[in-house]
Amino acid sequence: MTKGKDSKPHIGIYGRRNNGKSSLINRLAGQDIAIVSDFAGTTTDPVKKSFEITGFGPVILIDTAGIDDFGELGKKRIEKTLASIKTIDLAILVITENTFGDFEKSLIEEFKKTDTPFFIVHNKSDINLLADDSRISIISQTNAKIIEFDTIKAENYEKLVRLIKTTIPESAYKTPSLVGDLLSYGDIVLLITPIDIEAPAGRMILPQVQAIRDILDNDAVAIVLKEREVDAFLRKTKITPALAITDSQIFTKADASIPRNIPLTSFSIVLARYKGEFEHFLKGTPKISELKDGDRVLSLESCTHHVSCDDIGRVKIPRWISNFTGKKLEYDVVSGLDNLPRNIKEYALVVQCGGCVITRKQLINRLRPAIDAGIPVTNYGMAIAYVQGIYERAVAPFVKTSQSSVDYL
Question: Would you tell me which of 121, 137, 165, 354 could form a disulfide with 268, CB atoms 3.0–4.6 Å apart?
């Protein structure tokens, strides 16, 4: 399955083989984007398709292999089907012929583990309608909404779209502001963006672009400059920005250049508050000071990228944490949404990147095993700020807006 790199709502289609999952996707898309066959097991690995559902908007639909697959290959397909649940915002469980048993119950248990909202589609209703006793039994076991559907005539299409709208979490398609709650009309925000060997040729990195757009959407002014221009800019213009946002790698330089009366944070910390587990990051970051010799640290990159000789997640952060603690530490790095190389309980700390290319749901589920196991979690920017001695200043702009977080500093 292609790793999550799109912030549009993710909707997964689940059920047994030959229940019409792919036909349902094609009907929602209004085009043949999923392979349909009379033979069970046509869909193998989960497949992501991006398109617009008429009456709802752009989405990513995930077509999955049947939960009742068999054999060694089938077992692997089921594992990938179950793994995809961690990446979605809404699940649609497809059943047919009044059949609801252990396969369906196992899927629902997985939905509940990840707090994934779901509803049930009784498909192929042109062949068999859902019997009253089946409906009563399913609702009593799941408390789920059920809709009849026929992918041939699609008579309940509008009802299906309405059910998607009312079931999917609002946070999946309504984007909150990155820094809008910190700004007033006409405020100036200084964006400090170094151009180094890790910067992509001819363009800016995604968090920087997202920040610029968010500032403009909030009727504020974005001024973008490199770190070596900051001192001269402030001296010549006499401008006092309402906020300064820097690349985390140059936190120390930015801290020295930006006067103390100007709030300062980083792109990574902005993203941590925007889509991560910010209060858990606030709790977990100071645990860096408690690391011991032999502890293992897990670094989670949400994307795959060209690795430079001075890569932030693989080289710089491990070096900075090791130097700060003075301890001999072991590091693992996992890219995308790949499986972890070892049990989460073997780690003393998890360091998550900003997560600019994945959804909030994907990031939260990525961190959930560590949080549930009591493993401290932090974020690239917050970890860098902490080991460089400017942590309180870096999180202060957001702690002010969250009274429940004050006690963590």
Answer: 354
- Is residue 260 domain-shared with residue 319, that is, in the same domain? no
Task: Render each residue's pLDDT in the chain as its tens digit; 409 residues.
Answer: 433 445 688 999 999 998 999 888 888 877 555 444 444 444 455 778 887 877 777 888 899 999 999 899 999 999 999 999 988 999 999 999 999 999 999 999 999 998 899 999 999 988 889 999 999 999 999 999 999 998 888 778 889 999 998 999 877 766 678 999 999 999 999 999 988 656 666 778 888 999 999 999 999 999 999 999 999 999 999 999 999 999 998 999 999 999 999 999 999 999 999 887 899 999 999 999 999 999 999 999 876 544 444 688 889 999 999 999 999 999 999 987 778 999 999 999 999 998 888 888 888 888 999 999 999 999 999 999 999 999 999 999 998 644 443 343 3
Q: CB burial class (10 A; 0-12, 13-18, 19+) of residue 259?
A: exposed
Nearest residue to 178 via CA among 301, 275, 281, 278:
275
Q: Say if residue 159 is in the same domain as residue 19.
A: yes
Chain mean position to CA 404: 23
This prediction's pTM: 0.71
Same domain, 112 and 251: no
Number of domains in the chain: 3
CA dihedral 279, 285, 287, 290 (to 10 degrees): -170
The span from the CA of 255 to the CA of 76, in Å, is 50
CATH (domain of 27): 3.40.50.300
Question: Is residue 4 domain-resident?
Answer: no
* Distances, alpha carbon 66 to alpha carbons 17, 101, 127, 257, in Å: 4, 14, 20, 57
